[in-house]
Amino acid sequence: MSSRNVLVVLYDGVQSLDVTGPVEVFSGAGRCPGVDGYTIRTVSPAGAPVRTSSGLTLVPDGALESARPGPGTTLLVPGGRHSGDFEPRLTAWLRAYGGRAGRLVAVCTGGLLLAEAGLLDGRRATTHWNACEQMARDYPAVAVEPDPIYVRDGPVATSAGVTAGIDLALALVEEDHGRDLALLIARHLVVFLRRPGNQAQFSAQLSAQTARREPLREVQQWIAEHPGGDLSVEALAERAALSPRHFARAFQAETGVTPGRYVERVRVEHARRLLEDTGEGVSQISRACGYGTPEALRRAFVKTLGQSPAEYRRRFGPSAPPP
């Protein structure tokens, strides 16, 4: 496999993890014996050092103005606190040369920079959940998808906030070098290999608020640890020492979702992980996740993800082809 070039754009206010997360993934390939990895280069306007949003200083390899990405280059545009300011030199350079890269990748609010340069027009894209509304409002030619952690549309890939850039970089390494290498890098970084692109930006636990009252928080934890158990309102209310009616009202008031909806999210999320990472049968997974029958699991998957468990496993399971 021939060496690939990764060109990373830096600017004042850039989010440091948007840069270092994907760079660690790409550089990890080159540390593996027998792998012809990636040549990584960083550039900034005028080649000047930049100060990240967290206060770190990054010294680039060269000047943005002299960089010319080609078909063999993955151009990576990270997000940052000031990426909405659209520094004129950076935007002009992206508009002139961004489309020439073999792959164009944005992490977090770096997608706003690509949108400002017109590079997302007519394409599907995502960005940090807090900036999706802005992207949709300011760039109506972009088909914004607020839920996925990353979106691939031809040679253009955009990711959600911060750590989602690691997931996207792992998917690109898997595309270039195969699953085994991507898995090795993921293990080294102690991250999950397969957070598939259509996974929601929030887990079930993050998509709901954490309850203020301790009994309700304990119930949330119990649900996460026992997805296959009796998670009826009556059983959960008994655990919280509340009447079912009082429990249901309090749970929704403090978490923003009904107990039933929260349980469904947890169970679907658990089933997804089992389908992605194990070879267990659908019947076994259905029981482990509290659905009882494969048909009940199928209905939950179609309702939540728009596809059956079998379709999901074909796309994201252990033997799935590279994305």
Characteristics of this structure?
14 helices, two-stranded antiparallel sheet, alpha/beta, 11 strands, 12% strand, 323 residues, 7-stranded mixed beta sheet
Write the layout of secondary structure elements.
Blueprint: E1 4-9, H1 16-30, E2 38-44, E3 50-51, E4 57-58, E5 62-63, E6 73-77, H2 88-97, E7 103-106, H3 110-116, E8 124-125, H4 132-138, E9 143-144, E10 150-153, E11 156-159, H5 164-177, H6 179-189, H7 204-207, H8 214-225, H9 233-240, H10 244-255, H11 259-277, H12 282-288, H13 294-305, H14 309-316
Parallel strand pairs: 1-2, 1-6, 2-5, 6-7, 7-11, 8-9
Antiparallel strand pairs: 3-4, 10-11
Query: Main beta sheet, described?
Result: 7 strands, mixed
Which regions contain 5 or more consecutive residues with pLDDT less than 50?
Answer: none
Shape: globular
Side-by-side strand order of the widest sheet: 5-2-1-6-7-11-10
Structure summary, number of beta strands = 11
